[in-house]
């Protein structure tokens, strides 16, 4: 079967593991504002972080509950709605950037830093 019109990377993991890993990575990105990871993971983290920050900009109860269900740390939910939402209020997308670092020494995986825009 061909994967026509299906978006997203599987990252060689079962769905539950992949989603758990990405939820944790997005939480860490919002908490520390910068994460070092592999290139394909950074692209997936970026997609999810953009959606989460857009929820933070809207700021209503429904979006707070949706963000709380996705993120793994309640203090990060508070930061999202109290700091990050207002910070990006006049920006319509493009809250993250990915910078390539080169190959990792052990397995030559392409490494990247994903960070929140100032």
Structure description:
- The chain has 118 residues and is of the alpha+beta class.
- The protein has a single domain (17-88, 95-116), classed as 50s Ribosomal Protein L17, Chain: A (Alpha-Beta Complex), CATH 3.90.1030.10.
- It contains four helices and three strands, in the order αβαααββ.
- It has helices at residues 15-32, 39-58, 61-70, 74-87; strands spanning 34-38, 96-103, 110-116.
- The chain has a three-stranded antiparallel beta sheet with strand order 1-3-2.
- A hairpin with a 6-residue loop joins strand 2 (96-103) and strand 3 (110-116).
- Helix 2 runs antiparallel to helix 3 (61-70) and helix 2 (39-58) packs across helix 4.
- The chain is globular, with a radius of gyration of 15 Å.
- The N and C termini lie far apart (43 Å).
- The model has no long low-confidence stretch (mean pLDDT 97).
Summarize it.
The protein is 53% helix and 17% strand. It has 118 residues and is of the alpha+beta class.
Structural class: alpha+beta
Tally of distinct domains: 1
In CATH, what is the homologous superfamily? Ribosomal protein L17
CATH names the topology as 50s Ribosomal Protein L17, Chain: A
**In what order do the strands lie side by side in the largest sheet?**
1-3-2
SSE series? HEHHHEE
Architecture (CATH level 2) name:
Alpha-Beta Complex
Percent helix? 40-55%
Shape: globular
The biggest beta sheet, please? Answer: 3 strands, antiparallel
> β content, as a range?
15-25%
Average pLDDT across residues? 97
Number of helices: 4
